[in-house]
Amino acid sequence: MASSSSTFFICISLFVSFTLAEDPTVSYKFELTYITASPLGVPQQVIAINGKFPGPTINSTTNNNVVNVRNKLDDLVRSLHQKRSSWQDGVLGTNCPIPPKWNWTYNFQVKDQIGSYFYFPSLNFQRASGGFGSFIINPRSVIPIPFDNPADNITILIGDWYIRNHTDLRKTLDAGRTLGMPDGVLINGKGPYRYNDTLVPDGIDHETIDVEPGKTYRIRVSNVGVSTSLNFRIQNHYLLLAETEGSYTVQQNYTSLDIHVGQTYSFLVTMDQNASSDYYIVASARFVNETTWQRVTGVGILHYSNSKGKASGPLPDPPQDQYDNTFSMNQARSIRWNVSASGARPNPQGSFRYGSINVTEVYILRNKSPEMINGKRRAALSGISFVNPTTPIRLADEGFMEVILQNNETKMHSYHLDGYAFFVVGMGYGEWTNDSRGTYNKWDGIARTTTQVYPGAWTAILISLDNVGVWNLRTENLDSWYLGQETYIRIVNPEKNNKTELPMPDNALFCGALSRLQKPQDTSPATFNGFSIGSYGWVLMTMMMLFLF
């Protein structure tokens, strides 16, 4: 890989200290650069962190304070759920971008949170060029987990991939065209193993995961792609689902699982095969013409230390429902909350009885295929296409909210809400009606940050509005998000108690109509904990974490 001439820096320092509350601070140094890589055999520009594509895993523990000092690379990074601090959320509706060559300290706490997530560039389509990595929040040692400690943690990032970079993809959308079929699927930033000489050219580097026979590993899988739902499977191995986006699940085995854009799952996988050969790890496109989309398949290798040979032969079959989403929806409905397990706190997850809370507000958000608005092709929610303002906005609403996500398009969508874990209580085909509430799961519906909405179907979510601030609700499909399919929710607290939003940070940035309030900053190269910080671009970082009730 060759580094390009433009260098960008994000710093998450490398030390552990303590705040006044004696919660440890965990910091990392991040250096962002454009490098040249060839994940699908064609040289292209990708976004690397510390010279790596994908970026390094951030490993934290419940209640850690995480400090970032970084500059702006055009925009950047999301993955966590902020508690009482939308000032640190990192989307243009709530935060100003960091000017070129400026340094800025980003400080947030992973309060009462656990689980598996990922971070990524949040604006201008940069995620399509990389800049993403895994984010793990481990429970405190005094909190039990609902399974035996695994031999190790393995992170796997899967996603559709285009050889065109994010700038070219953006131009395609701006010109009113669709992106078309991806060029492939990457697994941890690498192309497919050459399982088929016709479909996979020679010389492509593939991902290999080394394991020991008889051991059980926790495998955390995130779909970091642009817009394609993927079916994940490991040849001859069961996937015991244990957790998703900070919620422990009822444990059940799957031979494969559909993972939609923006979602993360963690599985317990036992290496119980005879290792007569290596085994395929597969991530293949869903809800498409599988013959036409054969190349949109990621293939890695699971290698036992006592393996007797290379993997060969056909890939394990995907679900046989190419034109029927019923299997996938039933699979999604089967994912349930483990109500007896402790989350980030010692009390059981199920002690938050969401099904008994009165709904005070109901909103139905409908999408449909992109259409022309003011001469440009745009995507919308309930007929409104969002355009990021020059001055960050603060919209208002309050109460316990029920949101119906109605997908009137012919493609799958994933929706994400910053600042919250919402409860997925129901999904079904056709138009949602009041009678649909009769099908809701009011006991152990999964709490998560990103949910899928099937084509021609609805998904109902419940949100306990106890995290004050301004929070972004959006589709995770990058093309529709870029074209305006997002909105903002403001949660206000009329009672001035401990749930009130944290004050504006002393180092808050000002822009747009308030740019006159911004103090100048020394733009000479700075140092933080011994590391140099500098930049030639803009960065906007969003970290979103799951808050467990």
Distinctive features:
seven-stranded mixed sheet, mainly beta, globular, disordered C terminus, 34 strands, disordered N terminus, six-stranded mixed sheet, 549 residues, Immunoglobulin-like
Architecture overview:
Keywords: Glycoprotein, Signal. The protein is mainly beta and about 550 residues long. It has a domain at about 350-490: Cupredoxins -  blue copper proteins (Immunoglobulin-like, Sandwich), CATH 2.60.40. It has three helices and 34 strands. It has helices spanning about 165-175, 325-335, 480, and strands spanning about 1-10, 15-20, 25, 30-35, 45-50, 60, 65-70, 105-110, 115-120, 135-140, 155-160, 185, 210, 215-225, 230-235, 240-245, 245-255, 255-260, 265-270, 280-285, 295-305, 360-365, 370-375, 375-380, 400-405, 415, 420-430, 445-450, 450-455, 455-465, 470-475, 485-490, 525-530, 530-535. β33 and β34 form a beta hairpin. The longest helix is centred in the first third of the chain and has 9 residues, at about 165-175. Residues about 1-20, about 70-80, about 390-400 and about 525-549 have low confidence and may be disordered.
